[in-house]
Design goal:
The chain is an alpha/beta fold. It is 41% helix and 24% strand. The chain has a five-stranded mixed beta sheet with strand order 6-5-4-7-8.
């Protein structure tokens, strides 16, 4: 009977006090190395360059995409190749959107998996009447691609073009393959309404 009383009393005391959760006291008692409470955050830095050596810097931390030298609040990153028919088909639509929403939208197109020479890329940009930024720094573009596609739940053989829409540094949506201009425009208008609120 006495033993049962002590068992019940001990259970009640433990119930109200809980286990000791003081990390320092554990490490003092066990003389082991202390682990940092904060896990180091993964940071990414990318620099996109065009044929004229204009650059756009992207710093990513805590899933915030900070395009440091872009003033517009909406940024679309388009991954494309010049040999890709759907990519070429998307170009006039992206140029229209860039022109229509130039105060609020910046389109950054990043060339991937393409061995086009600079002179030919310049001719391509002129022939296609591209009205947005085209990054031809392939290695950096691919580094960004390899980082972003797993975050989007995509495999390595994702369809081109791949367009990713960000607003105020946060991911909003993405489009795989050719997409109707009206659909993208609808999303941009939706974002503009949210920004104005």
């Amino acid at each position: 009977m006495k033993n049962n009383f002590y068992l019940i009393l001990t259970s009640i005391v433990l119930l109200f006090t809980g286990c000791e959760n003081d990390e320092n006291s554990y490490f003092k008692k066990n003389n082991t190395h202390k682990f940092s409470k904060k896990v180091p955050e993964k940071k990414y830095n990318y620099t996109f360059s065009d044929l004229n050596n204009n650059t756009i810097n992207l710093h990513i931390k805590n899933n915030i995409y900070n395009f440091t030298n872009i003033k517009q609040s909406i940024v679309m990153v388009s991954l494309f190749s010049t040999w890709c028919p759907p990519c070429r088909g998307q170009i006039p639509h992206l140029s229209n959107l860039q022109k229509k929403f130039k105060k609020n939208l910046f389109i950054l197109s990043a060339l991937v998996h393409d061995d086009i020479k600079k002179e030919n890329l310049n001719k391509f940009i002129i022939a296609e009447k591209i009205k947005f930024f085209v990054s031809n720094k392939q290695e950096e573009n691919l580094n960004f691609t390899h980082m972003i596609t797993p975050k989007l739940g995509l495999k390595k053989d994702f369809p081109l073009p791949l367009m990713i829409l960000f607003v105020n540094g946060k991911y909003f949506t993405h489009y795989e393959g050719i997409m109707p201009e009206e659909m993208i425009e609808s999303d941009i208008k939706q974002l503009l309404k949210k920004i104005k609120k």
